[in-house]
What we know:
By secondary structure, the chain is mainly α. It has helices spanning 2-15, 19-26, 30-37, 50-56, 62-71, 87-108, 115-141.
Amino acid sequence: MCEILNTLHGMPKKHGLSIEWIADQMGVNPSTLQRQLNPDDPFPFPLKKTIPFMRACNNDFSPLDLIESRIGRAAYTISSQGMPIDCNSVAKLAKEAGEAISTMADAISDNRIDDDERRACTKGLSDLQRVVAGLLVQLNNG
Length: 142
């Protein structure tokens, strides 16, 4: 949790936003928010404020990404409409699948995966996952 607080603590500086402005957007007292964002202060940052905080920081979902990485999950933005079910969508699915498989094959060719390869594989598989999720949304809404 401390690593998450450190990430949260750096976000206002990262975006050039003041604690006062963020607190106003969240509807909280600036001094309370300052304490909650201080990783050296035992005053906890409430989980229910994480989403309002991320939205106030220009929709930066870094804290959510960090939480997801710690529990071995991945989230991504998809439209509530999903992707249209047509030839272009199927072609995009095939393209993303081919790229993900190729990236994985290249990464494991020497029987070890370095950090750059790990990031490339994660991105390729996440891109494929996003396409699949978009198609599933459309299928389930249709």
